[in-house]
Amino acid sequence: MGFLDLFVVAVVPVLKVLLITLVGLFLALDRIDLLGSTARPYLNNLIFYVFSPALVSSQLAGTITLQSLATLWFMPVNILLTFIIGSALAWILIKITRTPPHLQGLVIGCCSAGNLGNLLLIIVPAVCSESNSPFGDSTVCASYGMAYASLSMAVGAIYIWTYVFIIMRIYADNSAGNIENVSTADSESYTEALLPSSEKSSCHDHSAHGELPETVSDGKVTFMERTFGRFKKFAANTNLKKVFAPATIAAICGFIIGIVSPIRKLMIGDRAPLRVLESSASLLGQASIPCMALIMGSNLLKGLKRSEVSVSVIAGIVAVRNFFLPLIGIGIVKAAHHFGLVGSDSLYQFILLLQYALPPAMAIGVMAQLFKAGQSECSVIMLWCYVLAAFSLTLWSTFFMWLLG
Fold first, then answer.
1. Which of 26, 79, 188, 215 has the largest count of CB atoms under 10 Å?
2. Which residues form a coiled coil (predicted)?
């Protein structure tokens, strides 16, 4: 496959995202006002509570089996490594650029979570369908490639709606805590999100009496005891219904349906008696990706008017996702292959490598809208990342194919 052919393959899915984003921008204009400040929260809630859970559960149920877990076990590990390494690089970027506190969660989310879903679902079949594809027969390549890409999408969604969701919530809460010193009324409504009402009233009681909520013993407390005590206190005070996103619960359901054979036979397959449930969930889930792009475009209008994100932060995120992560990914995948953790399937290795070179996940924009933290800044970051991804994805895809060849 020549460079020009590969460029077209890589640029088409990115252009689709950018075109839908422009539609969202147009719908948010004051003269149109179909995705204005009133409509955005409703669409965002639909994505959060309906479309994303449906997408995650249907993808997991259709791709996860005990056999696939045994043969493709390194893919979830590889995706987790992209999140951890991206978070570490984001922490370094925050320290270097002195990112404002209310944008730190957004920077970590953009650096750690890649678009592991729809881009792979478009790029991989397109690469396989080319007559001079380096991955052999196009039918076999497309079949295995869709399975790998679907698994990548499902596992990535789990990490996004657990790992990144919790991190962005914590940073949003901390940012609200700083505002709390200025406005007490705002702080009470924000604290209510994670604390049950009984705990909240007890906090007020302690503060009213000028007492600390817990006593300190005279003896020395070890580090492990102190850590365990903090974890115990966090578990007691945290409302788990707020921590576990609907997509996380949907992922658990998808795992159960995919792994438990009797349930899978009932719901998955052309002859399954309850296949209408899975196909309906899949139909709902297909609305998730375009709606995320529309939200990103509508928030972009505000970002173009006024944005607090600096050029250095945008450049840092672009450098992390387009340069540092792919280089680190090459070392990790090559080392895994050397030690026998990954087989000799070149298509599988190609997808593992691509997972390090993708632009940020669009779900980050949904979370920014949910937490009211950096919505416009997120759209500006996404715009630059996706524009540059058209070129970086092409270059990295070409290099990865040469490397595997």
1. 79
2. none
Q: Can you tell me the distance from the alpha carbon of 108 to that of 369, in angstroms, rounded to the nearest whole number?
A: 16
Taking alpha carbons only, the member of 98, 260, 243, 119 closest to residue 173 is: 243
**Which of 348, 316, 288 is CA-nearest to residue 157?**
288
Distance CA 364, CA 392 (A): 20
pLDDT of residue 280: 92
Tokens of residue 329, six digits: 């990914």
Computed over its alpha carbons, how large is the radius of gyration of the chain? 23
User: Chain-wide mean pLDDT for the chain?
Assistant: 78
Cβ neighbours, 10 Å, residue 31: 5
- The answer to whether the CB of 55 falls within 8 A of the CB of 157 is yes
Is-contact 111 89, C-beta < 8 A? Answer: yes
Residue with tokens 């995919």: 258
- SS3 of residue 114 by DSSP: strand
Q: How far is CA 136 from the centre of its chain?
A: 31
pLDDT at 200: 44
344-365 tens-digit pLDDT: 888 899 999 999 999 898 888 8
Going from the C-alpha of 99 to that of each of 41, 235, 325, the distances in angstroms are: 26, 30, 20
pTM for this entry? 0.71
Q: Report whether 332 contacts 349 (CB < 8 A).
A: no
Please write the tens of the pLDDT for every residue from 46-94. Answer: 888 898 888 878 877 887 787 777 778 899 999 999 999 999 999 999 9
CA-closest candidate to residue 299, choices 365, 373, 385:
365
- pLDDT in the model for residue 233: 57
Beta partners for residue 114, in sequence order: 360
- What's the rounded Cα separation, in Å, for the pair 125 and 99? 39
Residue 347 vs residues 124, 150, 390: alpha-carbon distances, Å: 9, 14, 21
Which residues, 6+ apart, have CB-to-CB distance to 276 below 8 Å?
none
Which token pair is 352?
A: 């593992």
Token match 């396989």: residue?
A: 128
pLDDT digits (tens, 9 = 90+) for 272-300: 898 899 899 989 988 887 888 888 788 77
Count Cβ atoms below 10 Å from residue 386 Cβ, excluding itself. Answer: 23
